[in-house]
Design a protein that fits this description.
This protein is mostly beta strands. Helices cover about 5% and strands about 30% of the residues. The strands form three sheets. Strands 5, 8, 10, 11, 14, 15, 16, 17 and 18 form a nine-stranded antiparallel beta sheet that branches. Strands 6, 7, 9, 12, 13, 19 and 20 form a seven-stranded antiparallel beta sheet that branches.
Length: about 325
Amino acid sequence: MALQVIRDATATRPPMYLIDSDPLTYSFDLDENAEIGQILIRTDIPSTYCKTGPAPNDWLQTGNSGGIPVVGPGSIIDFSVSRAAADLFKANQLVLRTGGTAGSPNVIGAFNGGGVGNKSIAGKYGFGGFNISSLQSIEVTWNNLLGLGGPFFNPPTPGTVQTPYLNFIVDFGGGDLRVVLAMADPLNPAISNSIGTYLNPGGLNTMVYKWDDTMNVCIVGTPPNPVPGGVVPIVSVGPTFLDNAYSWAALKAANPTAKFVDAFPANTVLFPNGDGGLPVGAVLPSILLISGDSGNLSKSSKLVTSYKINGVQVLA
């Protein structure tokens, strides 16, 4: 693969490169001292990188995470609360595990709110600062090692917060930060089925959970809080935020500048002390894969063997 260096000597931006005469808008970790016009032979650049203009996986190329890798184990940080962990180990696998015993809550203080439970949180870097339209899909493949397997398990168990689910941290504009919920199976079926897809191929209990941008989401605390952009729920089965789902497409259309943020999840008007279900004082990445919640007192272990964002394996 041949790349030609093109540098504007008066500019402070990194050099641009040509690949087979097509301009790349991304700067790779090439020799900054390469001479203009020099031809560089590179065989280690995946075809994903060889695109021009905006692309669905721009988050892979721009180094937007402050030096933290955007793929691989280094892009995932454990933000678990109390007796819980998100363990990365050999073969690029992830275990979401929680401890606990019914009737033995933790001391209040580990969450921004008053929670006493155990919550495994794997924070995924790479999307902070990107418009929410940059996210097309997430797919998580997992096996149940301990605890409840949920309503799609074979045989089914009661709905549980132990099965993996997603949170997104989004600034809908002007600092209107919200926590978004997706791919959660224990809710009212009308809500769960609108915010995720839950597969158990062959009933063999290798679970494949998915969300994509044609689906819906819930917004933590909404209702009673107002919906960004005035979007009305597309599915509503009750008065709480877990009973109302909003079209992701409608949220994008009504809030065109909305972006993912790596941030302390607080809203100066609605929840100035931070989202009650997240770790106290933590600045979190914008995509969170979670097992458990602030009230969970159950032992559980979920082995995540694949975690794909926009089709890209982020555990590898």
